[in-house]
Amino acid sequence: MITARGVTSLVGPFLFVLALGAIAVAARGQSAPDQRTVLASSVLARSRHLEAGSAPSCPLSLPEQVKSVKAFAEMMPVFRHPRCTNCHGGVNPYVEPEIGNHRAGAMEPPDEGCQDCHDQLPGWTVPGAAMFFAGRSDEAICMQVKEFAGTGPDFVEHIRHDHDGIQFIKTGFKGDHALDNQSLADHDVVIEKPPGTQGQLTEMARNWVKAMGGEFVGSPECGCVKPRIDLKMTSKWTSTGNGSKISAGVSVTVPLKPDTSGLVFKGTAPLKHGVNSMTAPPGCRSDMKPSGGELEVTEARFDIGADQRMTISLAVAPTMSGGTWQWICPSLPYRWPIMPIISWTGLWGALHQGELIGHDYHFDEFEAASGLSLAGEPKLVGRKEVTRTGTGEGETFTEKTLFEFWWVGLKAK
User: Fold this and answer.
1) What is the DSSP string of 30-70?
2) First to last CA, the chain
3) Are the C-beta atoms of residues 364 and 38 closer than 8 Å to each other?
4) CA angle at 41 for the pair 40 and 42, rounded to the nearest 5°
5) How distant, in Å, are the alpha carbons of 247, 316, 390, 400 from that of 237?
6) pLDDT tens string 260-299
7) b/e for 56-82, b at 16 or more Cβ within 10 A?
8) Three-state DSSP class for 107?
9) Of 189, 261, 358, 375, which one has the fewest beta carbons inside 10 Å?
């Protein structure tokens, strides 16, 4: 139940629509600055059709793409550990240690001299620059793995047993730089092991390849790059009762950009105000001119379950809109004053209070498009319309908000 004590029948409904700054915020809930919306969709991998075009090609559906990126990210704590990154570009043994960070000083190629210290692994060497991890984003590392590993099963085998070659990965998990005890002491080296085990890393590699269908597919971006997604939100309000009617609307399209991990999206965009009106006194009309305001998506996370159901967790922090309103009354000898529109979010929060679980909104289903590809026009990922109603002081309030997520392609950072 919504109450508005001390409000007249004419001004009361108008005060309700003063929350124009909150109209677009269908994920706000009360007045807290950071709320979460969870959208669940039944997006399935129904199509693997590739469209022609210059955009990166990827036969994966959006859920599969998200799952693949997440699966690769689980390996990054190992890939980013010094035992991996030092060999993959983090240390240059051929320049002065002040520059190359090689404690034993500058070495002369070829790499036979490495064996003098790294004598616990015959054949110790460093890979070429094409396989450097240092200074590269997670997406870039993922794409270079796809490019140089050959096939998905080849990559899994490389992690499992180095293709039966020199056991660099196994040695890396020992954490001793392939140094004997004397060399460890001479160079003041502390044994540091990467997280987990080689077996666990192998299983992660297998999960990543499995998420792509058991093999590397599409262009290097496919299975590596978080998709570019736009959030479109449109909200319309009506208030009826006590002989008056108020309507208002606002929309916003927020381009969601992934952070460095590729797993969290953020974005900000200005509100676009629609036509707003209210019942005016006899012989008058309303002149409402809302303006300003932004919707900031502070966090959007995409996940997928074993049943291929997509979950979108959305946190927003809107800013309030402003503008002016006035009653225009040609028959009157005086002009009504121009008044500011004051955002009032309390009633919006009260309207939604019964649907809150903590501060989360939970939508059971999310209408979704079928097979998706990366070339051509943006593709609808999912759509969900939510309607909320409330009553108070003889008035009925109705708010409809349409959530849409659009896949607009892949682009590596």
Assistant:
1) TT-S-EEEEEEE-------PPPPSSSPP----HHHHHHHHH
2) 49
3) no
4) 135
5) 5, 20, 12, 7
6) 665 678 899 998 998 888 888 888 999 988 888 888 887 7
7) bbbbbbbbbbbbbbbbbbbbbebbbbe
8) coil
9) 358
CA 210 to chain centre: 22
Parallel, antiparallel, or unpaired: how do β-strands 244-258 and 277-278 relate?
antiparallel
| Structural Rg of the chain based on CA atoms | 29
Write down the residue that tokens 């909150």 correspond to.
22
- CA-to-CA dists, residue 305 to 42, 134, 339, 361, angstroms: 10, 32, 51, 19
Residue type, 218: G
* Structure confidence by residue, pLDDT tens digits, 81-108: 999 999 999 999 888 888 888 888 888 8
Q: Supply the DSSP symbol for 97.
A: H
**DSSP class of residue 281?**
S
Q: Where are the domains of the chain?
A: 11-49+225-410, 62-211
Residue 186's Cβ-side half-sphere holds a number of Cα atoms within 13 Å equal to 10
- Owner of token pair 């005060």: 15
